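Reading group handout, session on sequence-to-structure problems. Before we discuss, look at one worked example. The prompt was deliberately terse, the way you'd type it at a terminal:

> structure Peptide ABC transporter substrate-binding protein

The input record follows.
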Amino acid sequence: MGPRSTRRRGPLHALLAALLALLLGTATLTGCGPENGAVTSLGATGGTRVEGGTATMALPPAATPNWIFPIGTAGYLASYNNAVQDLLYPPLYTAEKKGAGLTMDSPRNLAGQPRYSDGNTTVTIALKKGYRWSDGTPVTSRDVEFWYDLIKHDKQEWAGYSPGLLPDNVKKFEVLDDHTFRLRLDRAYNPAWFTGNQLQDFTPLPKHAWDPHDENPKKVFARLLEHARKLSEFATDPLWKTVSGPWRIEKWTTSGQVSLIPNQQYSGPDKPHLDRVVLKPFTTADSEFNVLRAGGVDYGYIPPSVMARSASFKKLGYRIDPWEGWAITYIVLNFNHPTAGPLLRQTYLRRALQHLIDQRTIADVVWHGSAEPTRGPVPAGQLDRDPFPYDPEKAEALLAAHGWQRTGGQLRCARPGTGPDECGKDIPAGQPLRLELLSQSGSTETSNTMQEIKSAMDKAGITLDIRQQPLNTVLGTTVPCKKTEPVCSAWQLGFFGTQGSWYFPTVASGESLFATGAPSNMGNWSDPKADELIKKTEYSDDPSALRDYARYTADQVPVLWTPNPAYQVSVIRNDLRGIDQNPTLSLAPQDWYFVKKGGAGR
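And the output record:
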């Protein structure tokens, strides 16, 4: 790295070392398991299982679950919301890690593997028998059809909707019997893509409890949304008491603490061993660290800066396990912002901004090796090149070649117009190159990342103003918008990626993220060629389809790629077992259990 990186490393390491000494040197860690005993000295395996107990898991900094309805809407798409929903209302298919990718063939699936026929235009699915709702009513094909009818008639409300995909690509939903249904598709699809990226959404919902009188789906959906917006009533509303998953709600506070207890009617193969699971929110990573250090969390996380001292935790009866995600991380750009939009729509300018993000140094120094550079729209290792490595000189040359000149240290447009050497459409003469970033709060690493990016841009003559807000606020603000809508003036750039910005389904294609009009295309980026390449990933099982899409989209820089961190550096009590850190961030606390040392009580 150049001199700038060297200067950055010195004070940053000193700051983190001081913080580490303060955090690790001021208290002794004590355990509080199911019987309030000391943490065992067992390793990650062995021991005699104890039925019962309470396990407390820390939620990410400034993250508070606030949506229970298994059909997500804009602003409520955080991974922890999905994780809780899936424990109450499991989808038909669950993705699990397999080699370097994911598989949809899980023993937790509520259905057998789909059968494709008629040239991949028909899909037949058989539900596994024996599953029941918590009131004893069997889970049937009609419960899946109920979910489908809701998204079909209210697709604009559903955050998972992309024009042309679900439910548009299903011409007919046929219930064959109580445990079998068939989908007639509008064309042939790549079976791996359709199973991994479409069927993963199919979720049985309790029609007998939520729609006993066969009302109009739009009316039912509106009623369910009304209930879903009453956060203070999640634990008491009778609507949410009919569940099919291994857990049911005991408490759900407005501050985001969720307490789950076993659904005694659950008939799946993975029945809970614990009496209770508590998901505990924290305002910052430091506050979580203090509670973890005092033994108030059984499954928590540490700042990446503490990884070098992981031996200290191991001596105290904990194990360290970074939770890697099937994800990418980026700063989203609002192409429809009244003033920033014309700037961000210039491909040369986005490329220049990307050249100013020193991903390798940020990953190594700020994230202490617990992050990897994001090269494009697919997870690390899926793209073989970095099209825009850190290069301030190239960034400045790109801007100068398009009419930007420094005045008093600030870049301003000196050659307005749409020519090849001019600033671009709707950028007036004298406009400063100034942008504002809305970033999530609660993480020292995220704050340092943004300051590092700001510093690099300042040196290039670009002003980057940073505002920090809690994650839910950022997610609720950085939503797709039209130029005339007030919310479109509320943000220019947004970052919500402390635990990764986007977690993919099985196939890392871009239909939900970078296609024109896609539900999670927060910045309203639109590119006809990208749309065409995305379609090819949906229709063709040729591996080159995904590669071509990834390379082209990486080159266009629809967002600013930033280092992708591990979801968290997990710290788990040695006597808490059965934890499988799924790359999609789903949880399976029904598999968790405590053990006692050597088969004896503690």
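Points for discussion. First: The longest strand covers residues 54-61. Second: Residues 90-218 form a domain with the Dipeptide-binding Protein; domain 1 fold (CATH 3.90.76.10).
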